[in-house]
Amino acid sequence: MTTINNAVYRRRLLMHKVGIALSSMAMAVGVFFLMWILFTLLVKGFSALSIGLLTESTPAPGSDGGGLMNAILGSLMMVGTATLISTPIGILAGIYLAEYGDKSWFGAVTRFVTDIMLSAPSIVIGLFVYAIYVFHVKHFSGWAGSIAISLIAIPVIVRTTDNMLGLVPTSLREAAFALGAPRWKVALLIRLRAVKAGVMTGILLAVARISGETAPLLFTALNNQFYSANMNQPMANLPVVIYQFAMSPYDNWRELAWGGALLVTFSVLTLNILARTVFSQKVKN
Questions:
Q1: pLDDT confidence of 24, banded at 50, 70, 90?
Q2: pLDDT at position 1 over 70
Q3: What is the pLDDT of residue 270?
């Protein structure tokens, strides 16, 4: 019996070591390519950084110089608008799921649709907004781009809010009900306030997700060579400019594309660091 047990133990130990070795190899391959990508981005991106990159608009084909000022401001405007649209909708939907989602068929359907939207290709969302909005107004616009990326951000905020509200102790809710607080006050002023740092983390992660989306903006906002604050007109944005400039035959356009890629990467990295360090520490406390 001892011999059999030893044989089983040795076989399991061998499989464990093989599994750990394969997992380590897979991680090493992933980290290697990630570091390779980041190194290439840093080398080529830093060479493109200049004052002109932040103060000049995108250049015309064949012209020298230029920058990404109009694309940066356009991205900020559209991402900011999308955040203003998606945040209240996502938080309120998350509150509904946390309060009533387990007791109604509508809550179950909402969770299912939200999970589908989390994994839906962004280009499909862009085509959807093109069909229901751009096609009817007959022109691309910053509003269409904001709507498209807000549809990507909403499910992230919904699921984060729902999950965070589920962490609130039942005793806290019962104490509030015992004091005579109505259910809407318990949800908004007690449960949501208790997990506001976690909800803010979800919002930042959603903003980081939509900051680099290109496909939806190709069908909605498109691009604009000049600076424009009119959200009802085609609007320049960093993801589309990077996509177009990276494939161009002009050296300065490709250099600007590397500089824009570096800006987007560091912006997303900063948001992820804030979400996973500053606010996550507040949640633990």
A1: very high
A2: no
A3: 87
Q: Which residues of 114-140 are buried (b: 16+ CB within 10 A; e: fewer)?
A: beebeeeebeebbbbbbeebbeeeeeb
Give residue 3's pLDDT.
54
> What one-character-per-residue DSSP string does the chain give?
-HHHHHHHHHHHHHHHHHHHHHHHHHHHHHHHHHHHHHHHHHHHHHTT--HHHHHSPPPPTT-----SHHHHHHHHHHHHHHHHHHHHHHHHHHHHHHHHTTT-HHHHHHHHHHHHHHHS-HHHHHHHHIIIIIHHHTS--HHHHHHHHHHHHHHHHHHHHHHHHTTS-HHHHHHHHHTT--HHHIIIIIIHHHTHHHHHHHHHHHHHHHHT--HHHHTTT---SS----TTS----HHHHHHHHHTSS-HHHHHHHHHHHHHHHHHHHHHHHIIIIIHHHHHH-
Sequence-distant (≥ 6) Cβ neighbours of residue 278 within 8 angstroms: none
- Region 235-247: what's the mean pLDDT? 93
For residue 264, give both structure tokens: 């987007």
Question: Of 149, 26, 3, 11, which is closest to residue 76 (Cα–Cα)?
Answer: 149
Structure tokens at 151: 């549809």
Does residue 258 have a pLDDT over 50?
Answer: yes
